[in-house]
Design goal:
about 375 residues; alpha/beta; five-stranded parallel β-sheet
Length: about 375
């Protein structure tokens, strides 16, 4: 074979492979295909949880996709919706006095992730009577959005449009800009093999994987319950002295901006979106409770002593906003103000069940008063 002909055949094969990959990825990107053959385990668990079942939670689950799939599968509006991070994962329906509550919390989630959940519910016409929003310190840090929502951007951009229509002066389209930048970086994915491999993996998982349903009394594994709360036996019977050591070790080893609220400034665009989002949740008569989860008393003084820490500034602004907007505000980043001691924590910034119950007691009391 002549060299020129050989080179032409190689070029034709390369172009054909690229075209076939592009075409397959176009098909694989269709919603009907991605919903069935990507994040298969998340879909199967979501279907069980949405029907009120308790399911063993695998360690490699994508929490974002799991929560969004639950929101898409709920048969009706929950009495209460919980939005937060790992700080609120254990919040169960009985803590809120709302039998039909659903916890949509996602570990390490940014505000945009919760806007997506809110939009899914709004599009389906599901309006919870109560919204419980755990306000994490990184909500207002523009550098602390890890981009999980870019896998499902349409809902965030629709929520952005909703909120921009009601705010005065108009809000900046920060999520649209972020998505445009993300799409430019992901432009070459249309010729990559990853979507193809994910889809084939999904075909296998569709047959091989199943969601393991467990009973209420099973405490041997990490379980996501039928109300969306996550139950784990690993935090039982902890020595407060050991927890204090863990808290100090965590803070001094990794005093990161995401966890402890250290960043240059509160982003005003994010703050205004937060205010507009809370007001949106109230539009259909919903009651909104903002919750501040405290830090361990051994480290809180050190946290707020760090230059550029934003915890006190955020808390002060939240108090002013809550009064102006007529929403409830519970807790404090300061454990003394929140009424928590070291015995209420299992590490530097996560409360045990008893602490969470006390923190949220006014919500349950309000629900009992409002009950017919």
């Amino acid at each position: 074979m002549r060299p020129l002909r050989y080179l032409l055949l190689l070029a034709a094969a390369a172009v054909g492979t690229a075209a076939a990959t592009w075409l397959f990825n176009r098909v694989a990107a269709r919603p009907a295909v991605t919903d069935r053959y990507q994040f298969v385990m998340e879909r199967k668990i979501a279907a069980r949880v949405a029907s009120g079942k308790n399911v063993v939670l695998p360690g490699d689950i994508n929490e974002w996709m799991l929560r969004w799939k639950i929101a898409r599968r709920l048969p009706g509006a929950p009495d209460a919706a919980v939005l937060g991070s790992s700080h609120s994962l254990p919040v169960a329906a009985d803590m809120l006095g709302a039998p039909d509550a659903m916890n949509f919390s996602i570990s390490g989630s940014a505000m945009a992730d919760h806007l997506l959940t809110t939009e899914i519910l709004a599009e389906r016409g599901l309006h919870p009577r109560t919204w419980v929003i755990f306000v994490d310190a990184w909500f207002f840090d523009l550098g602390a959005d890890f981009g999980a929502w870019h896998d499902e951007p349409a809902e965030v951009l629709r929520m952005e449009d909703r909120l921009r229509q009601t705010a005065q002066p108009p809000l900046e389209p920060i999520f649209t800009r972020s998505q445009d930048a993300w799409a430019r970086r992901a432009h070459t994915d249309r010729y990559a093999l990853a979507p193809l491999l994910r889809t084939f993996d999904g075909w296998i998982n569709e047959v091989a994987l199943s969601a393991e349903v467990v009973g209420q009394a099973d405490g041997s594994a990490t379980v996501i319950c039928g109300d969306g709360s996550v139950r784990s036996s690993s935090h039982a019977e902890l020595d407060p002295a050991d927890v204090r050591s863990v808290a100090l070790h965590q803070f001094r080893l990794n005093a990161d901006r995401h966890r402890y609220g250290k960043y240059d400034r509160i982003d005003e665009d994010l703050w205004r979106y937060f205010e507009a989002w809370v007001r949106f949740c109230r539009q259909d008569g919903g009651r909104v409770w903002l919750v501040l989860s405290p830090y361990h008393p051994a480290i809180y003084p050190e946290i707020v002593a760090v230059p550029q820490n934003q915890l006190k500034a955020i808390e002060s602004r939240l108090h002013a906003f809550a009064r102006q907007a007529g929403v409830g505000l519970l807790g404090s980043y300061d454990p003394a103000q929140a009424g928590m001691s070291g015995a209420d924590f299992y590490d530097g910034d996560h409360l045990l069940k008893g602490g969470l119950q006390r923190l949220l007691a006014p919500i349950a009391a309000s629900a009992a008063t409002a009950a017919p």
